[in-house]
Write the structure tokens for this entry.
Amino acid sequence: MKHIVLLSVLLFLGDIAFAQKGHLGQWAGQSTTGELVKFKFLDDGRVVFERSRGGKSDGKTTGARISLDYTFNYSKDPHWLDLTGTSHDSIYTTMYLVQFVGPDSLRIATPKEFNKRPHTFSDAGEIYSLKRIKTD
């Protein structure tokens, strides 16, 4: 009986550990404004974030690709995602909400105001709908 209980506990803890790394890998999709977005979450706490209309060059809208630090808080519902980077010697953090729609699909709610996490998806600035990119 003790072995069954121990095995059940170990399987449960394994499921928790897997679930808390469910964000790892590459994700791509669109925002509610039609912008193409990509995230590549690495196991070392870094993320590569790409937007198709993320910057300006010579007055023209261009894509942007940036590498940031991230923290993912699975204890919150919806989950919390914080992206932290530096700009002009200042540290900034942008706070998001994340909802897994399935094992290979998620939604990210962006803030309307800098340094303020949206409370719900309905008060988000934009929503990114993303699918996992399968790699071998």
